[in-house]
């Protein structure tokens, strides 16, 4: 009996132990119940979510560094300076050009009489100032003739005569106005051409500012499709004065971008469309043909009102041959001589006009947005010779 009792107790013990063995592991595996969201749970939301996952840059599938979007500041439209009297205001920039003339004239003024040395000094200073050999010979010949006829004795008088001759050499009667006004509701079209780095894009931007300051509406066409940066550069200028830019994808046909720009200008009824082109060397036939195509395609809308050739004054006489080729491909109606602030040889203006027979209409006198001035021969010669303005203004 006792044996049965013991066996029953042992079985009971086994049953209890087995039961515990089955239950305990299950209890261990059971997940913790989530903490109830109550007022007593002080853990912050982000703590619950865990730390933010930051994918290392190398893990980005594209392998491209993705920059965070920059919030564009609200555009502020600038009000450009009026153009009146700019050449006078920028006179000090030109005074660097006086160096060459100035030095020659200083020597000249130190003499009492007009002798051969004086004539040589005048000749030297004109040639050194980039006036060009032919133009210098003409100017000096005329000066000698006039002094003989007038019986000029003093060097001071000669100086005045020289100023007159320089103005004459700049052909003051030439029409230097920019044809930018719309005709019968159709915008005027300006094409801007030249070699690399001459200042075409900057000049387009500066002209747009001048026109907008005069109350005109302007559209800019970025027909320099070689580099996206070129169109960006133009768009930045346009954005500053609130003008629209028409551009194409990088590598697009510049003629079609120019065509689209004029088309858009006609549709929106702007006053002037300015077409910036890529810099090209005059000896690259393919590029010059491309420029010819830009001109022809734009002319499907109507004649181009103004084709401006932008020349860098610091390239001196070398720039003249380049310029001649451009005039053969497109019908250049005006020259913009840039970087006159960066040369001591302002005489290049005379050489350019003489060689090309095309008026210098504008001069660039700095990198600033308003450092562009209408060209005026009398004011220019006054600045060049360091004399007081003669009262002849544009
Ligand atoms: N000092 C001075 N710098 C100028 C003047 N005009 C333009 N520049 C500078 O010349 C450089 C070239 O100007 P851009 O307008 O880019 O010349 P670009 O002809 O459009 O050049 P590409 O399109 O590359 O052929 C820039 O650094 C301008 O700031 C000027 O009148 N004076
Ligand atoms: Mg450019």
Automatic annotation (TrEMBL):
Intracellular or extracellular location(s): Cell membrane; Cytoplasm
Catalytic activity: GTP + H2O = GDP + phosphate + H(+)
EC number: 3.6.5.4
One BP term from GO: SRP-dependent cotranslational protein targeting to membrane
InterPro entries: AAA+_ATPase, P-loop_NTPase, Signal_recog_particl_SRP54_hlx, SR_rcpt_FtsY, SRP/SRP_N, SRP54_GTPase_dom, SRP54_N_sf
Topology term for the membrane: Peripheral membrane protein
Single annotated GO MF: GTP binding
Main location: membrane
Residues the record lists as binding GTP: 194-201, 276-280, 338-341
Top-level EC class as recorded in UniProt: hydrolase
Superkingdom of origin organism: Bacteria
HAMAP family recorded: FtsY
Subunit structure: Part of the signal recognition particle protein translocation system, which is composed of SRP and FtsY.
Family: Belongs to the GTP-binding SRP family. FtsY subfamily.
Protein name as it appears in the record: Signal recognition particle receptor FtsY
């Amino acid at each position: 009996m006792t044996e049965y009792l013991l066996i029953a107790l042992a079985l009971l013990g086994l049953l209890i132990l087995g039961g515990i063995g089955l239950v305990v592991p299950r209890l261990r595996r059971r997940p913790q119940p989530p903490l109830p969201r109550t007022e007593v749970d002080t853990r912050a939301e982000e703590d619950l979510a865990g730390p933010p996952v930051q994918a290392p840059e190398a893990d980005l599938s594209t392998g491209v560094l993705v920059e965070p979007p920059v919030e564009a500041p609200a555009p502020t439209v600038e009000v450009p300076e009026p153009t009146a009297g700019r050449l006078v205001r920028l006179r000090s920039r030109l005074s660097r050009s006086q160096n060459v003339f100035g030095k020659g004239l200083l020597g000249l003024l130190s003499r009492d009489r007009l002798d051969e040395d004086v004539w040589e000094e005048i000749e030297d200073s004109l040639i050194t100032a980039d006036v060009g050999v032919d133009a210098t010979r003409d100017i000096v010949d005329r000066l000698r003739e006039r002094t003989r006829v007038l019986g000029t004795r003093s060097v001071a008088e000669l100086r005045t005569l020289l100023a007159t001759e320089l103005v004459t050499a700049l052909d003051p009667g030439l029409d230097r106005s920019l044809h930018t006004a719309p005709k019968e509701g159709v915008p005027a079209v300006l094409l801007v051409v030249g070699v690399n780095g001459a200042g075409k894009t900057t000049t387009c931007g500066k002209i747009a500012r001048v026109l907008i300051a005069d109350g005109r509406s302007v559209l800019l066409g970025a027909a320099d499709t070689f580099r996206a940066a070129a169109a960006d550069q133009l768009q930045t200028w346009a954005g500053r004065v609130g003008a629209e830019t028409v551009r194409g994808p990088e590598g697009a046909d510049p003629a079609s971008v120019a065509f689209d720009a004029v088309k858009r200008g006609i549709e929106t009824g702007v006053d002037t469309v300015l077409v910036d082109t890529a810099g090209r060397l005059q000896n690259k036939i393919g590029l010059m043909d491309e420029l010819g195509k830009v001109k022809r395609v734009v002319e499907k809308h109507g004649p181009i009102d103004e084709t401006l050739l932008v020349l860098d004054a610091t390239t001196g006489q070398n720039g003249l041959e380049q310029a001649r080729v451009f005039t053969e491909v497109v019908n250049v109606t005006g020259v913009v001589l840039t970087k006159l602030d960066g040369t001591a040889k302002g005489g290049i203006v005379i050489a350019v006009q003489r060689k090309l027979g095309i008026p210098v209409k504008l001069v660039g006198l700095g990198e600033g947005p308003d450092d562009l001035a209408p060209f005026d021969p009398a004011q220019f010669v006054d600045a060049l010779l360091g004399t007081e303005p003669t009262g002849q203004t544009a």
